[in-house]
Write a structure and sequence with these properties.
The protein has 279 residues and is an alpha/beta fold. Helix content is 32%, strand content 21%. Strand 1, helix 3 and strand 2 form a beta-alpha-beta unit. Helix 1 runs parallel beside helix 4. About 6% of the residues have low confidence.
């Protein structure tokens, strides 16, 4: 795999293309952005259409769960959405946090930030903002968020440990996160693991579930719970771009699993970032 900078450049480029398409265009093309590529960027998505706060123009069907369903957001909370895209989860979070709450979306793709801001402006939302930034260096001060959500984005981050450290930093003591993501159980076949486009499609960038949970614990999170998980089966027509028929059969029968998971964790109430003034 490429360097972290090259990976981020590739992911940014792919999602810039997607930002200019509607959900229908992403779903109806062979496999999402860029015409007939080998990856379906909408394959993991769940239905948001009946949720309070749903904004159709913000839903590009790029998630792999519904983190707001489990995030225990309350009225007045400050919610940070990591990898906010066109604003889909941020607007649902706003409907829960209410007028007294605040939602901050972070995304590294300028085209997504522009699309999200356009959606917020059309709705006259004054308590939702979108900031251009990197999840490995979140542009938010320490101890500001009551809740962090994220939807199928952390798997795209090259340095996941650094991303988890940043999540810990920006959460208030006693705050918590609920993130939907892609993890692995068992090893991916080498062609899938190494392919850059599959990285942008949330597959080859995923890590082992045990490693994911371990790293969250290492940075200081407690009460870590898997709130929901489901297997993701890649269609044979996608796998055939990478694997032979025999390799596909072996993968499907061999216990290797791509898992959509939603994970919860808390920053202990006793935790405080040095120099932040919260102690």
């Amino acid at each position: 795999m490429e360097t972290g900078t090259a990976i981020k450049d590739m992911v940014r480029s792919k999602y810039a293309e997607i930002a200019h398409q509607t959900q229908e265009q992403n779903a109806s093309s062979c496999c999402g952005a860029g015409g007939c590529s080998t990856v379906d960027y909408t394959i993991f998505a769940e239905d948001y259409t009946k949720l309070k706060g749903y904004v159709a123009d913000a839903d590009l069907a790029l998630g792999c769960g519904v983190p707001t369903e489990f995030a225990l957001i309350e009225e007045g909370h400050t919610v940070v959405d990591l990898g906010s895209g066109a604003g889909n989860d941020a607007f649902v979070a706003r409907a829960i946090a209410g007028e007294s709450g605040k939602v901050i979306g972070i995304d590294m793709t300028p085209e997504m930030i522009a699309k999200a801001r356009e959606n917020a402006d059309k709705l006259n939302f004054n308590n939702v903002e979108f900031r251009l930034g990197d999840i490995e260096n979140i542009p938010i001060a320490a101890n500001r968020a009551d809740v962090i959500i994220s939807n199928c984005v952390l798997n795209l981050v090259p340095d996941k440990l650094r991303a988890f450290q940043e999540m810990f930093r920006i959460l208030k003591p006693g705050g918590h996160f609920s993130v939907s993501d892609i993890v692995l159980r068992g090893e991916l076949p080498e062609p899938l693991r190494k392919d850059a486009e599959m990285y942008a499609g949330c597959v080859s960038g995923a890590i082992q579930e045990d490693d994911y949970l371990r790293m969250l614990s290492e940075v200081g999170f407690t009460n870590i719970v898997v709130q929901k998980s489901r297997p993701v089966i890649l269609p044979d027509d996608i796998l055939s771009a990478y694997l032979t028929p025999d390799e596909i059969t072996s993968m499907n029968a061999g216990g290797q699993g791509i898992i959509s998971t939603t994970v919860y964790g808390e920053k202990p109430a006793s935790a405080c970032e040095p120099g932040s003034g919260c102690c």
